Amino acid sequence: MLFAISISPTTSDEPNGSVSHAVARAVKVIRDSGLPHETTSMFTTIEGTWDEVMPVIKSACDAVGEVSPRVQLVMKADLRPGFEGEMTGKLERLERAIDQLPPDEENASR
Questions:
Q1: pLDDT digits 0-9 by tens, 16-50
Q2: How much is the CA Rg of the chain, to the nearest whole Å?
Q3: How many Cβ atoms from other residues are within 10 Å of residue 42's Cβ?
Q4: What is the pLDDT of residue 59?
Q5: Going along the chain, which residue ranges are E strands?
Q6: ∠63-4-54 over CA atoms, to 5°?
Q7: In the sheet where 44-47 sits, what is the strand order?
Q8: How many CA atoms lie within 13 Å of 18's alpha carbon, on the beta-carbon side?
């Protein structure tokens, strides 16, 4: 199962509004979990079962909560038990599907 999450404080003491110091705390918890994960500019995706991932998400929220009185969690999940390696598997299937599409003649001439 894949869980894409974004955890951040709703407040910041930084003059420019940056929350990276608090978000770093959450990402460190996720990295230290040992679960497969990938961090992008907007989300961190974690792969594992409910029982593996949910305590990590809670701990990551708690880590941000240590530096902010209010924490926001956004989560999207792909619940597909029995499948592993889907962080890369989904992308590989997508790339194959794109390669199989017919050329777009209108865009090809630009």
A1: 878 899 999 999 999 999 999 999 999 999 999 99
A2: 18
A3: 8
A4: 98
A5: 2-9, 37-39, 44-47, 71-78
A6: 55
A7: 37-39, 44-47, 2-9, 71-78
A8: 6
Angstrom distance (rounded) from CA 59 to CA 90: 27
Helices (H) and strands (E) in the chain, counts: 4, 4
Q: Which residues contact 81 (CB under 8 A, 6 or more apart)?
A: 1, 49
Query: Which of these, 55, 22, 49, lies nearest to 36 by C-alpha position?
Result: 49
Question: Going along 10-43, which residue ranges are E strands?
Answer: 37-39
Q: What is the pLDDT of residue 110?
A: 56
pLDDT digits (tens, 9 = 90+) for 74-96: 999 999 888 889 988 989 999 99
Give the whole-angstrom CA distance, residue 61 versus residue 51.
Answer: 16
**0.70 exceeded by the pTM?**
yes
26: left (phi over 0), alpha (psi -120 to 50) or beta: alpha
Q: What is the pLDDT of residue 106?
A: 61
